[in-house]
Amino acid sequence: MTAYLTSLFFVVLAEMGDKTQLLAVAFATCYRWQTVMGGVLAATLVNHLFAVFIGSYLTHWIPMEYIQIAAAASFIGFGLWTIRGDDLGGGEMECSYNPFWTVFAGFFMAEMGDKTQLATVALAAQFNTIIPVWLGTTTGMIIADGVGILAGATLGRKIPAKVVKWLAATVFIIFGLGSLYISLPQQVLTLPVIAGGLVLLGWLIYKISRREKIEFPLRRRTL
């Protein structure tokens, strides 16, 4: 249950403001919300099953302590990635093909290498289990993208989520720092190393948050 709830919680955070959530908003401006939700669910089940197998079987070749350190660092990376923000990388959405398979293919490809997929790999490696993490991350994606689908279906445009993204990023970074403190050898955790790491992290947050973001308009659904 711990693996399931942790996976659900962190994937919800990772998906807030992510490009795949924006993609769900965009699809919902073209298609019925039921179709979009079904396509997102199917794509997530396939994609995250692939991710948890990768994360689970890593432990057979790499010592667990190294994987835990890498997973902790990755959560800090997810936090910085969340601050940076995502865009859809293009203009209007095309709405002319089979709705379900269009959503499935678009969402599956967008999730490949995305931070929510990488978070799934990290969680599977950390808990060394498949089914609870798979179900937890899938549930988290459906909850987060359900928000996007509802927004797209009712408003037909992207809803700014700056406060939510900063809250999500803060939780990720705090979790990553705490996990690093537990996982790293004590002889490494000297005062200069800790201070230097925090200064570097603060500088990265400052630089990333200063980056100008481009928002793309989404086509409204034609009734």
Explain what you see:
Belongs to the GDT1 family. One of its GO terms (cellular component) is membrane. InterPro entries: GDT1-like. This is GDT1 family protein. It comes from Lucifera butyrica. The protein is globular. The protein is built from nine helices and no strands. 41% of the residues are buried. 73% of the residues lie in helices and 0% in strands. Residues 88-94 and 214-223 have low confidence and may be disordered. The termini are far apart. Helix 1 packs parallel to helix 7 (131-155), helix 3 packs antiparallel against helix 7 (131-155) and helix 4 packs antiparallel against helix 6 (115-127). The protein has one domain. The protein is mostly helical and 223 residues long.
What letter string, H or E per element, gives the SSE order?
HHHHHHHHH
Helix content: over 70%
Radius of gyration: 18 Å
- Whole-number count of domains: 1
Distance between the termini: 43 Å
Largest sheet: none
Mean pLDDT: 77
With helices defined by DSSP (H or I, 4 residues minimum), what is the helix count? 9
Strand-pairing-aware structural class? mainly alpha
Descriptive keywords:
mainly alpha, disordered C terminus, 223 residues, globular, 73% helix
Topology summary:
Layout: H1 2-15, H2 19-28, H3 33-57, H4 64-84, H5 99-111, H6 115-127, H7 131-155, H8 162-183, H9 191-209
Helix pairs in contact: 1-6, 1-7, 2-5, 2-7, 3-5, 3-6, 3-7, 4-6, 4-8, 6-7
Transmembrane segments: 36-59, 66-83, 131-151, 163-182, 188-206
Protein name: GDT1 family protein
Membrane topology: Multi-pass membrane protein
